[in-house]
């Protein structure tokens, strides 16, 4: 069975890069009828942010990337948490000591800093401490770490399923810390132990971890375990081709949700980051992505995360993929957040229908359609100028509108066209100031549709307020 995992650290906002890697892990597991695990790597207590784990899990649920439960930790809905598995890592570190694959190192932070300054990195000097002496010092409670004992000389081969075999000179592989002096494991040890014990068969992660993989391959060898298959995905890039970062791009999944991006659209867009559908189409469902997914269609070029392309795709989903009823339902929280209410479900659906070509995110709907829900809406400078120019015509038009009995789009269009012809002006010379009076803007859906939707009472009230 194929088993994949995503292993985020709860150190801040849920990251769009985490979602990107999670999507490919999820797709590969589901395509093969396997399991997709979430493991919270929370052993770095200096960077731990309370509440971050809950936000990461909520973001994954929002995206529809449902994970399989952890059978031994966390209850029926997972996930695994490394902070709850500390005895496992300590025991495995001690096993490596017995096998001669690790050693205890007792340098103080000050000594380590001096070594780094002189040598450029740790020089393995604690390798020379006789094991009996090291064990005695540990028994006396002297602070220390456990380090990997990299075999030297020699080489280590890493087989990457996307990049082929990469050979590393062991002289370039550091004796990394496996277990810190506080009893917490480093990423390297916890990652390998957990992947093995959880039966992970395919490690799919960002390419920045490729340089750490020889360390992990050595650990698998040290324990006598079979290593999983490794796939290192290309990093998401800013528009300037640098690694995506919050300094240059929006990286928080919470931001995309708050801005009204659809999870389906964001998920679809992330699927295009490094992958292309066989038929070249850009809009596809999660199920279609899973069905079509093959590693042969993954490109190693650095995919650029383009916010404007995502906005375009989000707009396509709002106009062409989701039903009118679905869009109306999803704009409701954004209307409420803006302090707006609606008189009926039918009114809301019609408002959404009229505005649908004009908004690309859910948050834009209340911003652009505010005049359909409240009398408190802004008036643009262009609208003010149109009102000033058209005020005489509006004064003459008002009694005609007041006398109009049938308040339908067709009847209102006939009235306005007839009025313009009677006055010897173009329809726009009547329509634009009237549009400005009713909406505060010159950039709106069709005037006849807006008049019909607002209703006679509200339309006349707004026009009277302008004329007064």
From TrEMBL:
Domain Aminoacyl-tRNA synthetase class I anticodon-binding as annotated: residue spans: 326-466
Keyword Nucleotide-binding belongs to the record: yes
List of residues binding ATP: 246
UniProt entry tagged with the keyword rRNA-binding: no
GO cellular component terms, semicolon-separated: cytosol
Catalytic activity: tRNA(Glu) + L-glutamate + ATP = L-glutamyl-tRNA(Glu) + AMP + diphosphate
Region (Disordered): 121-140
Motif ('HIGH' region): 8-18
Keyword annotations from UniProtKB, A to Z: Aminoacyl-tRNA synthetase, ATP-binding, Cytoplasm, Ligase, Nucleotide-binding, Protein biosynthesis
Top class in the EC scheme: ligase
Pfam families in alphabetical order: Anticodon_2 (PF19269), tRNA-synt_1c (PF00749)
Motif ('KMSKS' region): 243-247
Localization terms from the record: Cytoplasm
InterPro entries membership: aa-tRNA-synth_I_cd-bd (IPR045462), aa-tRNA-synth_I_codon-bd_sub2 (IPR020751), aa-tRNA-synth_I_CS (IPR001412), aa_tRNA-synth_I_cd-bd_sf (IPR008925), Glu-tRNA-ligase_bac/mito (IPR004527), Glu-tRNA-synth_I_codon-bd_sub1 (IPR020752), Glu/Gln-tRNA-synth (IPR000924), Glu/Gln-tRNA-synth_Ib_cat-dom (IPR020058)
Residue ranges of domain Glutamyl/glutaminyl-tRNA synthetase class Ib catalytic in the record: 2-312
GO BP term, example: glutamyl-tRNA aminoacylation
Database matches in NCBIfam families: gltX_bact
UniProt similarity note: Belongs to the class-I aminoacyl-tRNA synthetase family. Glutamate--tRNA ligase type 1 subfamily.
HAMAP family reported for this sequence: Glu_tRNA_synth_type1
Stated role: Catalyzes the attachment of glutamate to tRNA(Glu) in a two-step reaction: glutamate is first activated by ATP to form Glu-AMP and then transferred to the acceptor end of tRNA(Glu).
Subunit: Monomer.
Name recorded for this polypeptide: Glutamate--tRNA ligase
């Amino acid at each position: 069975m194929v088993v994949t995992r995503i292993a985020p650290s709860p150190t801040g906002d849920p990251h769009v890069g985490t979602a990107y890697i999670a999507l490919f892990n999820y797709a590969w597991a589901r395509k093969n009828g396997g399991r997709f695990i979430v493991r919270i790597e929370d052993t770095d207590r200096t960077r731990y942010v309370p509440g971050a784990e809950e936000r990461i899990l909520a973001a994954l649920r929002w995206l529809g990337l449902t994970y399989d439960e952890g059978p031994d930790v966390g209850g029926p809905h997972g996930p695994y948490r490394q902070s709850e598995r500390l005895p496992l890592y300590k025991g495995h570190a001690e096993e490596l000591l017995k096998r001669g694959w690790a050693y205890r190192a007792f340098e103080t932070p000050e000594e380590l800093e001096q070594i780094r300054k002189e040598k450029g990195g740790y020089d393995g000097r604690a390798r020379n401490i006789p094991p009996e002496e090291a064990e005695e010092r540990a028994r006396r409670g002297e602070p220390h770490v456990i380090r990997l004992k990299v075999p030297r000389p020699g080489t280590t081969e890493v087989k990457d399923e996307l990049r082929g075999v990469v050979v590393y000179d062991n002289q370039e592989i550091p004796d990394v810390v496996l277990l810190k002096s506080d009893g917490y494991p480093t990423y390297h040890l916890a990652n390998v132990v957990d992947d093995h014990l959880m039966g992970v068969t395919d490690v799919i992660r960002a390419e920045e971890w490729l340089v750490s993989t020889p360390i992990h391959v050595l650990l698998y060898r040290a324990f006598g375990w079979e290593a999983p298959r490794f796939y290192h995905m290309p990093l998401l890039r800013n528009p300037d081709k640098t690694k995506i970062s919050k300094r240059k791009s929006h990286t928080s999944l919470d931001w995309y949700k708050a801005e009204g991006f659809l999870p389906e659209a964001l998920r679809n867009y992330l699927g295009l980051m490094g992958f292309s559908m066989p038929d070249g189409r850009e809009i596809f469902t999660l199920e279609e992505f899973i069905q079509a997914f093959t590693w042969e269609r993954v490109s190693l070029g650095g995919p650029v995360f383009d916010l404007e392309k995502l906005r375009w795709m989000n707009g396509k989903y709002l106009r062409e993929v989701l039903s009118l009823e679905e869009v109306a339902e999803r704009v409701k929280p954004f209307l409420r957040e803006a302090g707006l209410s609606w008189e009926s479900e039918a009114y809301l659906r019609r408002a959404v229908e009229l505005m649908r070509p004009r908004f690309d995110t859910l948050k834009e709907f209340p911003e652009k359609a505010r005049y359909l829900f409240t009398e408190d809406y802004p008036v643009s400078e262009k609208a003010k100028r149109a009102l000033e120019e058209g005020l005489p015509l509006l004064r003459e038009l008002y009694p005609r509108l007041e006398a109009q009995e049938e308040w339908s789009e067709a009847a209102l269009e006939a009235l306005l066209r007839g009025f313009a012809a009677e006055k010897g002006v173009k329809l726009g010379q009547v329509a634009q100031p009237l549009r400005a009076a009713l909406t505060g803007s010159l950039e709106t859906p069709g005037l006849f549709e807006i008049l019909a939707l607002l209703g006679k009472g509200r339309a006349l009230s707004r026009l009277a307020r302008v004329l007064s």
